[in-house]
Structure formats: C-alpha cells, structure tokens
Amino acid sequence: MDETEVLIAGAGPTGLVLALWLVRQGVKVRIVDRSAGPGTSSRAMAVQARTLELYRQLDLVDEIVEGGLRNPAINMWVKGERRARLSFRDAGRELTPYPFALIYPQDRHERVLVRRLIDAGVTVERNTELLGFEQDATGVTARLRGPAGESVCRAAWLAGCDGAHSVVRHQLGTGFEGGTYQHTFYVADVEVSGPAANGEIHVSLEDGDFAALFAYDLQGNARLIGAVRDAEVREGHTLAFDDVRQRAITSLGIKIRQVNWFSTYRVHHRVTGHYRVGRALLLGDAAHVHSPAGGQGMNTGIGDAINVAWKLAHVLRGQAPESLIDTYETERKAFARKLVETTDRAFSFVVAEGGFADFVRTHIAPLFASAAYGIEPVRAFMFRVLSQLGIHYPDSTLSAGSAGHVHGGDRLPWTGYGGGPDNHAPLAAIAWQVHVYGEVAPALQTWCAGRGIALYRYDWCDACQAAGLARDAVYLVRPDTYVALVDRAGERDTLEAYFTERGIHPV
C-alpha cells in the first residue's frame, strides 16, 4: 500500500495549486488525474488580481503575467456602437500591483503549474482514476486504477479537486443544490479582425442576444462566448458555430477569420452542502459551480486551494488541532454562496428575454455602468468584486479585531501605490507575520523574536493612511496573506491569547 500525507484527486488548476502550496510547506502529496495529459483548449481565461497577488508566494506571478495579456478595460457595445469603456487601471491602480484582468488560456496556465510541480519533485499520475475510498479517524484509504491496474493508497487527507462530476463528492453524499439555466451556450476560440480586436474585453448586448469577446493576444486570437439559437437545439442535431446567434457578434464589427475550437454547454449554479466530511475535502468545481460571468470560477478554486493548504500543513505538523480545517468550509462556502448569487443575477440579466428586458439591457445598463464607473468609490468597489480583492472572512473564528478600515479576516491592504512601501513583498513567505505601520513597542519586538514570528515595521505614510490602516496598530497576518488579528493597542498579550485560544503554534 502506498502512503502519502495528502492525496489529491484532479489535476486542474485547483489541484495543481493545492499540490504546489503543500509541497512548498514540506507536505508529502500524490496527485492523480484520469486524463492522459493537461488540457489542450483555452477554457478558463481570466486570472484575477487576487490570484496574481497570491502567486507571489511561489514566485509564479512574473512568469504568468509575462505569458498572458494584460487586459486594461471592458467595453460595452449596443447595436454596433460602443456605449461604455470601464478601465481596470483607473479602478485598481491604488489597490494592487496588478490593476488589470490577465487573460491567460487555461492550457498554458496548467503547463506552467505542472512544470513547477515537477521542479518541486512531484509528477501528476495520469490515466489514474479514483474509484472510491474509505476513511477512519486517522486517514483515508483510496482505491485507484491506473495504467498498471488497481492499487490502494493510504493518505492522512483526501482532497477532491475532481470537478463538477466529482467522485469524492458523490461518495460523501454532500449534495449539490442549485439549478441549471434553460439556455444552451457556446464557447469558441476564434481568429478575428476588426475594431474590437484590440486586446480588450468587449461585451455586446442586443435584443434577445449577447456575446463577449476576450482577446488573449494582439494578433486577433480570442475567446468568444454567447448563446445558441434555441431553434437549433434539438435532439440528434450536432451543434456547430453556424448555429449560434449572430446579431450580437455582428454588432461588434468583427470578422471571424477562423474557428479553432467550438463547444456548447449548459450553465449550472450549485454549491455542495459541506466542504469537509471527516478526512475528505472538496475544492473548486467539486464544491461549487456557477455561470462564467466575471471570470470567477478558476480563481475561486485556486483560492480554495490556498486557503486550505496552510491549514492542512499546520495540522499535519502538529501546529494546530484538526478543528482548524473546519474554518476552510466556514470561510470559503460563505464566499461561494455569495458568488453564485451574484453571478446568477448578472447572468440572468444578460440572458433575460422580452421587450422590457431588452430595453434595460441595451439602453439603461450601458448608461448606468458608464455613470457609476465615473464615481471613484463605486469604481473601486466594482474592481474589488471582479478582481476578488474584496474576499474577506469576517465571521471566521480566525478573525478578530479592527483598526482603521481593516478588520480581522480582510486581505492585507497594499501600500505600494504613490511611492509607499510594498508591504506585500514579505507575504511571499507562507508563514505567520506581524506588520506595524508606525512605532513598535519593545515588548512586541521581544515577543515576536521569542516566538520566531517575523515582524515588519513600516514608516507611517500617506499610502498607509489611504490603504485604511491605523498608525501604530498591530496586524497579525495569516500564512495565506489575510489579516487574522488587528490590535490597535499593540499588546503582545493580545497576540499570545489569540494563538492560545485557538490551539495554534505558529512556528
């Protein structure tokens, strides 16, 4: 019987990122996937700013950004005219080092993650299927079928990153509540020319139709999504690109030179009942699926992986009780439910039919979006939502305190805009750390040194104030770069009590 600490079922971005973050923390992993190799189509395209920030932890971000296309704006078109242009740079430049949506096809993305994992000494076991598993108080015994036949693997934890049809979820019986939209949609990788082939995102809203174009280079290669004509969706008919609705595509003024890949799908919106049952966990599409509105799916799965990776490492190393893993569901399920609701409303609006819906979509929405985006707080809010910078965990048992505009559970704000210090640079260490913006009490320095926790002090500046931080307050930062505790008084006893109450030994 083979043994490992964490067995990962599924080698998409979620499973690969989980493996990378675990290996970086010294955890032994096996990762299996029933496919013969990484994906060969673009699939998920957008890598959001929050994901890029987290990729700094493994020195991944530069390679990913250089390989993709920095998309600076979303354009809204109606009846052949561009009615609004929403700039990411204007909205996000003060919030993150990555004020753009990076368009990076999933097949290229996966190849980078696979190569980094090989460099770390782990190879994805291809053509290997998880058949089932049994678990007890100390771990999971999984049955696998690979090229050499069936085998058994014993693991302390099983991570189900095996997609919407998850074997792990089905065996756990955690359900998958939600529904399916009645429309059939298409996705195509195309080569285009025309005014919209300029490296930006373009959304075309028409009476009874919509289309979205995502460029992934400046040579006219792009992802196109939209709806299939209902009349063409019938039993026995194989859908092709000629069956898609054309009005919204025509309104973009693009000429499609070639269709390199075409597929159709039904959109689901579902969330599983539990993310954890015993020693088995669900991540990514195995736990939640939703409409592709906003490019959130893959990024949410990656966020799941990074959230639970440090918690698994702590438990496996005896640095925290097993109950720490329960915070994974508390934190990520709340966000998934909110995301499904938000994307459901956005998608329902885009595909709604009827005269009134058409009027709102083609006349009111572009005017409202343009006007609202001109208001700085609204612009920043919209960017936070789209980029996932706004994800926070206020109800987690790991979150406590507040100072300035920052609460326990928030992402640590970035202070690097306008000449301020890049306070995200130390976050590359997957470790607990303390940040102070202003003066540090000697007793706190002594406590951090004795605990082996890195202490970073920054001079108070305008950028710190603009980021919502409080002068001289203490910010205890989790290994996944979220603020765990905010203490305005900066007392070492408050930090000591935080760890004692939760049974966590940070080093």
From TrEMBL:
<dbReference type="InterPro" id="IPR050641">
    <property type="entry name" value="RIFMO-like"/>
</dbReference>
<dbReference type="InterPro" id="IPR036188">
    <property type="entry name" value="FAD/NAD-bd_sf"/>
</dbReference>
<keyword id="KW-0560">Oxidoreductase</keyword>
<feature type="domain" description="FAD-binding">
    <location>
        <begin position="3"/>
        <end position="342"/>
    </location>
</feature>
<dbReference type="GO" id="GO:0004497">
    <property type="term" value="F:monooxygenase activity"/>
</dbReference>
<dbReference type="InterPro" id="IPR002938">
    <property type="entry name" value="FAD-bd"/>
</dbReference>
<keyword id="KW-0285">Flavoprotein</keyword>
<keyword id="KW-0274">FAD</keyword>
<protein>
    <submittedName>
        <fullName>FAD-dependent monooxygenase</fullName>
    </submittedName>
</protein>
<dbReference type="Pfam" id="PF01494">
    <property type="entry name" value="FAD_binding_3"/>
</dbReference>
<keyword id="KW-0503">Monooxygenase</keyword>
